[in-house]
Design goal:
Radius of gyration: 28 Å
Distance between the termini: 64 Å
Largest sheet: 6 strands, mixed
Structural class: alpha/beta
Bound molecules: adenosine-5'-diphosphate, magnesium ion
CATH architecture of the largest domain: Orthogonal Bundle
Number of helices: 23
Helix content: 40-55%
Strand order of the largest sheet: 8-9-10-5-11-12
Length: 586
């Protein structure tokens, strides 16, 4: 079934269900599941996909609910007019809270969300104009034409049409350039910035998006319940939302619906059954509920949605035509020193990792950077690509001084790299990882992606990624998760990702480590070919034969200091180099 047909079928089902002979009780339960699904869907994006755990989503539900409650109950404004205001206020609050929160790392992030989750619960309960602990009553129902949506049955279609729309938009969002950047967040690699992704901004986008879904749910909730008080927006409800996302399958949009359904129905049924079993009143369901969740999390770490996904027939991967260089290409530079490193230093506390190193890389040159482990080679890569700041000295690229620039800006100038310790997103496909390299060659934003207006550009970006994968010999693996590749292939994938940026200068950090003989030969051929096409390469590699056969010049480092520079034949004979590094190898 085509997605459009599936959507039409779902719309018809959503309109028909309230007419079916289903008891009011179950209809109301389904309404609630719809409301929870919206919040859980935001959490799927934030926590499952983006890797940022939030216990505080209920507070944003509160923002949406209280905004519309005050405006419609106290000031008599129509609920439909309060919707944009509720979303705007939630969005602004999320922007403010998020810009502080998403900077936190490790445990501090979830702790931070707990802190403001609690703070807003008490704030809602203490503000007189929000009705303090009693909350706000007499909120008008939603009205369509002359028809008031008083009961759960008339409310059903509105909630679920909103959930359907949110599912479609969110699924679309994940399948875009911005969506890839969001999904790459979780791997937490430094590669993202090196490929021009503004990770802080992407995190904030996800944070606000998740909050908006929560605010939307709160707006609906207020007009459904018609009276609200702070209990619905406290920290324990925030924890429940998170559990819904996790139980359903925190990496999948539909996991949110499944999780909201399971948690809501389970809780409801347990509330019914347990007092009868135990013969006493009390919150026993919370205990059983907690126990069941632990079991689910133990046996299905990725939630339950993947089980359903596995039971469904596999969806064929979208056919992809490797683009024939359809993205605009950077003019290849010329000149003897497109990269000009002048007397750079890097101190880590008392350790001098790079000590007054100068060298140049000319157009169409392959320059080798060699030296024993710990000599400072990778540090130089990090200094040139802006992932670390120089302690002293200057770096120029095509005449621009870049040593004080952000990694993103340097990437945009045309420097791409690979990492000694592979920095890829293992859960994303090989193709998507390569497409991260092309990120800055696209411009489609969040909205155009959600509305599918980015398809032409997406095709070009993915086409370019596919072209580079074919070129390095990974075409057959395109649709596999990157995590399923062998280490040597991952290194090659890193090269494809770097090439997808269309760099003028390519920095390769030990690309041949872990490659077999034939693979090394293929890599050497690729580098020769790239040079012919006008690429400049700076290469760190321990395989001496590989380096000597490939490079035009060599720079030799030892303990951060440059001990020699020259053509391979000279370096081979240089006594200082032989002593420090090459030893008996050559
Ligand atoms: P190479 O790549 O030549 O093997 P590196 O550039 O990785 O060497 O490391 C050079 C020296 O700097 C080593 O002594 C290493 O321990 C140190 N070093 C590298 N990165 C850091 C860092 N982020 N903090 C502290 N020390 C570092
Ligand atoms: Mg290194």
């Amino acid at each position: 079934m085509k997605p459009a047909h599936a959507a039409i079928a779902l719309v018809i089902a959503i309109l028909a269900i309230p007419l079916a002979p289903i008891s009011d009780y179950w209809i109301v339960l389904l309404d609630n599941i719809g409301l929870y699904s919206l919040v859980a869907m935001g959490l799927v994006l934030l926590t499952g996909v983006g890797g940022m755990t939030s216990f505080g989503q209920a507070a944003f539900v509160g923002f949406g609910a209280y905004t519309t409650a005050v405006l419609s109950a106290t000031y008599g404004i129509s609920p439909w007019l309060t919707l944009p205001l509720a979303l705007a206020l939630t969005g602004l609050a999320a922007l403010a809270i998020g810009s502080v929160t998403v900077r936190l790392s490790g445990h501090y992030l979830p702790l931070g969300t707990m802190a403001w989750g609690l703070a807003f619960f008490y704030l809602f309960g203490n503000l007189e104009f929000l009705g303090a602990h009693d909350g706000i009553n007499g909120i008008p129902p939603l009205r369509i034409g002359t028809h008031d949506l008083f009961d759960g049955r008339s409310f059903f279609s509105v909630v679920w049409l909103v959930v359907l729309a949110a599912s479609v938009l969110t699924t679309n969002l994940l399948d875009t350039r911005v969506g890839r950047a969001i999904r790459a967040l979780r791997a937490g690699t430094i590669a993202n910035e090196a490929f021009g992704i503004d990770t802080a901004r992407v995190k904030l986008i996800v944070f606000v998006y998740a909050a908006l879904l929560a605010g939307l749910s709160g707006w609906l909730y207020a007009h459904f319940q018609r009276s609200i008080n702070p209990t619905a927006f406290g920290l324990n409800i925030g924890i429940e939302y998170l559990l819904m996302a996790v139980v359903g399958g925190a990496g999948h949009v539909f996991g949110a619906l499944l999780g909201a359904g399971i948690v809501t129905i389970l809780k409801d049924q347990l509330q019914d059954i347990l007092p009868r079993l135990i013969g006493a009143q009390g919150n026993y369901e919370t205990i059983v509920f907690g126990f069941m969740l632990v079991v689910i999390l133990q046996s299905a770490r990725n939630g339950l949605w993947p089980f359903i996904l596995n039971a469904l027939p596999p969806r064929p991967a979208k056919p992809l035509v490797p683009a024939d260089a359809s993205l605009p290409q950077r003019p290849k530079p010329s000149g003897p020193a497109i990269l000009d490193v002048r007397g750079i230093n890097k101190h880590f506390g008392g350790l001098v990792a790079v000590n007054d190193v100068s060298f140049t890389v000319g157009a169409k040159e392959i320059v080798g950077l060699i030296g024993p482990n710990g000599a400072g080679k990778s540090t130089i890569f990090n200094l040139v690509t802006g992932l670390l700041r120089v302690t002293g000295g200057e770096v120029y690229f095509q005449g621009n001084r870049i040593d004080a620039m952000e990694a993103r800006g340097i990437a945009a100038l045309g420097i791409a790299r690979t990492f000694q310790h592979v920095e890829l997103a293992p859960d994303m496909s090989v193709l998507e990882n390569a497409a991260i390299g092309a990120h800055i060659r696209g411009s489609a934003g969040l909205l155009s992606g959600m509305l599918r207006l980015d398809r032409a550009e997406e095709k070009r970006l993915l086409g370019e990624a596919a072209r580079q994968l074919e070129r390095v010999g990974l075409g057959a693996y395109m649709h596999r998760p990157a995590g399923s590749l062998a280490l040597g292939q991952l290194r090659i994938l890193e090269i494809a990702r770097a090439l997808a940026l269309d760099p003028a200068l390519l920095l390769l950090d030990e690309p041949a480590a872990g490659l077999r003989h034939l693979e090394k030969r293929a890599l050497a051929e690729l580098l020769h070919k790239l040079r012919e096409e006008g690429m400049s390469v700076l290469l760190v590699e321990h395989d001496v034969e590989f380096v000597m056969g490939l490079t035009d010049h060599l720079v030799v480092l030892d303990f951060g200091k440059m001990i020699a520079k020259g053509v391979p034949a000279e370096i081979r004979k240089n006594p200082v180099v032989l002593e420090a590094y090459l030893g008996g190898v050559v």
